[in-house]
Amino acid sequence: MIRLHHVPLARSLRVMWLLEELGLGYEVAYYSIRDGSLRAPDFLALSPAGRVPVLEHHGAVWVESGAIVQMLCETYSEAGLMPPPGHAERARFLEVLSLSETVGCLLENLNLNQVFLRPPARPSATVVKLLNARLRAALAAMEARMEGDHLLPSGFSAADIMFAYGFELARYYVDLDQYPRLMAYWDGLRARPAYQRAKARDGEQDIYAQEFYPVPEEG
Ligand SMILES: N[C@@H](CCC(=O)N[C@@H](CS)C(=O)NCC(=O)O)C(=O)O
Question: Which of 38, 127, 146, 186 is exposed most, by the fewest CB atoms within 10 A?
Answer without folding.
Answer: 127
